[in-house]
Give the backbone structure.
Amino acid sequence: MEIPMGTQGCFSKSLLLSASILVLWMLQGSQAALYIQKIPEQPQKNQDLLLSVQGVPDTFQDFNWYLGEETYGGTRLFTYIPGIQRPQRDGSAMGQRDIVGFPNGSMLLRRAQPTDSGTYQVAITINSEWTMKAKTEVQVAEKNKELPSTHLPTNAGILAATIIGSLAAGALLISCIAYLLVTRNWRGQSHRMATTEKPELGPAHDAGDNNIYEVMPSPVLLVSPISDTRSINPARPLPTPPHLQAEPENHQYQQDLLNPDPAPYCQLVPTS
């Protein structure tokens, strides 16, 4: 069974269109697989900038870095060919820039300047028919001259707070020392006043009684009764009674001595 010529032509065109779409999709996918990370994201003047390439295959032939929207010889920064003694070959766009390439496809721009701002592109050659590309925008900013002035109020506030805190701490310490000294002096004065002011000891004299009393001795010896222990002075020994003879006529005298009359034997007689 033969296929008509018109049908074969339509089939060939459809197959060619499908292959073209597949190749285009593969190229777009290869570009989307690469990603350039800027470290730091917002570089300042005289600061090193690292353009790290993510998603690089394990094996590739070489890679080229470009500065600009177009990728040709005039915008080529350098070419890196791994596996040779001198892998990096600088291009016409390198100029006075200090750029170092790495085997993983990344590059380091040392001491970046505002003139280095622009579009950076990398093209990694996998083989003669497959090249992966990625690009990123770099903007190198001038150093912020207002940065010290913006931090000045903060530093001044911190300095003022430190000075005020130190003065407050010093005042508190001086107050504590003064309080301790005053309290110590007050306690010392109170103690001296308490020791110097002694109460007057002695019998109370009646100002209205001007009489003079005379003590007269008793005609007989006074002996405290033995049963009355309250009138005995423990510090003074009892007088030894004289030797008594055992005569009958002195029996009554001895009884009087042993059992004296509790009445007082002396009288206080006021004298004029």
In short: The longest strand covers residues 118-127. Residues 227-232 have pLDDT under 50 and may be disordered.
